Amino acid sequence: MFDALQLASIPAEDEALRPKVRALIAEHVLQRPITDRVRSWMGVDAAFSRALAEAGLLGLTVPAAYGGGGRGPFARYVVVEELLAAGAPVGLHWIADRQSALLILGFGTQAQKQLYLPRICRGEIFFCIGMSEPGAGSDLASVRSRAERTEQGWRLTGQKIWTTSAHLCDYMIALVRTSGAPGDRQQGLSQLIVDLRAPGVAIRGIEDATGHRDFNEVFFDGVELPADALLGTEGAGWAQVNAELAFERSGPERIWASAVLLDGWIAHLKRSGAGEARVERVGALTTQLAALRTLSIALTARLAAGERPLTEASLYKDLGTSFEQAIPVAIADDLGSHPDEPVAPELRAALVEALALAPTYSLRGGTREILRGIIARGLGLR
Amino acid sequence: MSELLASFERLLDTAGGDALMPALDVAGFLDALRELPLREIEPLLRALGRRAIDAPVAEAMAARAVPAPSRALLAVIATAEMAGIGERLLDMSIEHANTREQFGRPIGKFQAIQQQLAVMAEQVMMTRIAAQTSCAHGLEPPLAAAAVAKSAASSAAPTIAGIAHAVHGAIGITREFPLHRFTARLHALRMSHGSESYWNRLLGSARLQADAQNSLDFVRSI
């Protein structure tokens, strides 16, 4: 299995994107407080998303014919790692850029591609994920939301939950049942592009432990959708949603969630001084980060070669999110082990924020246990 | 598999004990690093690991290629051997999980075992990529590159060895069953040429002294 994962490096033409991204980061991100920047994935800033689009940095992997950059996965890799390492507010365009656009590109009709992709690349429309339901978390195939055929198209009834930024988005790509019964599991599921402003859609925020309202419940009460709301093939929703999850899991972004906190702490150590234990701890986290980044580059090279390394992507996501979660835990111990040392209130607040957010890192996009099950299958154990 | 690796493995599998070093010398393998870049020899180093060969083959190769091999180079070489050991231990553990039956089925059908083997595979993959990355630097690896590699491999080693033993059960610690040779070698290499804490101190110190704007800049410079 590991023979396929070869050492790779980022092509020079993609490295060349860094100055452009950094200029935008300097203009829009660095002055934001660290407590904002630790929330990068959840951070929302429409002006920033549009600035990225104007600079040609959204939809980089979408073909130029649909308004995208027409580039390979490494172009997006460079942009994403720069944005996340700086804690840029990427939440608004994140889902469309990472997975919805690729899903539409892969399964959509010519008309759907022309309708959605250019606007995604211009930062004009934003998408959210429509997978989880109250009774369908890790067991995604048990979704109960249901769309019935009508003369005009579809009538959708049901509910989604944990939908990040649904209240700010324009569309959801929802996995719903279009035939059969919940007991049919993977059979009879389809993906629909749901206009979130259609009558019958109700969005209700869920307040999280830090007081933010990023999560939502989304209710569909007989929502009338046109026939071309269907994405891809009716009944092929399970295969399509797995392709979508592959985009979600194999990205380069699984190591940077706590990077802003790490750098805030390192700045603190530079001011306060670091004895041997602290130096060692900085080294332990930095060696892990460097090794994981090499792994993510090797994985991206496989994607660039047109492969879908599902097992390796799961291995990487589990390792990466464990690392992201270890950072706030380590920093909490470090700061707590120097009780008489002054710590900037922003750093403390960012730590509290990161500790509260960290559990989600190994939930979103497939829980740790689900990923390890996928790995076990890849190892020939299931 | 390359012809070089195939003939190296044939020799390792036929010449045992005291005959190994002379046989490798005669065949020219101890001079391999004088003729080929380290990244091309890396699969051979993993082949040593996959057999838990205790003889100082890799050290001899390094000593023939450079007069006084640096600790960084020896650490990088040890990382590659550790990657080989990890691969073999994972193979052995999967094989055992798929054949050993308890409660009427192979233990590999139990999620508790599957989840552990998944964790083991993650750590083996980290060790493997660390070996490949650091061997690409050749015979004079920068200290930071050696630090990342050996720290990653040494940090992974106790998890890899621990899960291998957990999956194998009591048979794993018998003299008769070969598992202990691999885990003992892995623990020994973890300590050799700097354990993870040694290299973490070194890299941590470099990070704290660096002018890097952020951690991304720093790791890109390694």
UniProtKB/TrEMBL annotation, chain A:
Instruction: Please name the GO terms that the record assigns under molecular function.
Output: acyl-CoA dehydrogenase activity; flavin adenine dinucleotide binding
Give the lineage: Bacteria, Pseudomonadati, Pseudomonadota, Alphaproteobacteria, Sphingomonadales
Q: Does the keyword Endoplasmic reticulum apply?
A: no
**Every Acyl-CoA oxidase/dehydrogenase middle domain range:** 128-223
Q: Name one GO cellular component term.
A: plasma membrane
InterPro entries per UniProt: Acyl-CoA_DH_CS, Acyl-CoA_Oxase/DH_mid-dom, Acyl-CoA_Oxase/DH_mid-dom_sf, AcylCoA_DH/ox_N, AcylCoA_DH/ox_N_sf, AcylCoA_DH/oxidase_NM_dom_sf, Mycobact_Acyl-CoA_DH
List the residue ranges forming a coiled coil, or say none: none
For this entry, the protein name equals: Acyl-CoA dehydrogenase
| Start and end residues of each Acyl-CoA dehydrogenase/oxidase N-terminal domain | 12-124
Matching SUPFAM superfamilies:
Acyl-CoA dehydrogenase NM domain-like (SSF56645)
Query: Per UniProt, which keywords does this protein have?
Result: Oxidoreductase
TrEMBL record, chain B:
Domain Acyl-CoA dehydrogenase/oxidase C-terminal: residue ranges: 79-197
Transmembrane helix: is it a keyword of this entry? no
InterPro entries in UniProt: AcylCo_DH-like_C, AcylCo_DH/oxidase_C
Task: Give the UniProt keywords, A-Z.
Answer: FAD, Flavoprotein, Oxidoreductase
Q: Which domain of life is it from?
A: Bacteria
Which Pfam families does the entry mention? Acyl-CoA_dh_1
**A GO molecular-function annotation:** acyl-CoA dehydrogenase activity
Annotated protein name in UniProt:
Acyl-CoA dehydrogenase/oxidase C-terminal domain-containing protein
The organism of origin for this protein: Sphingomonas horti
Q: What is the lineage of its organism?
A: Bacteria, Pseudomonadati, Pseudomonadota, Alphaproteobacteria, Sphingomonadales
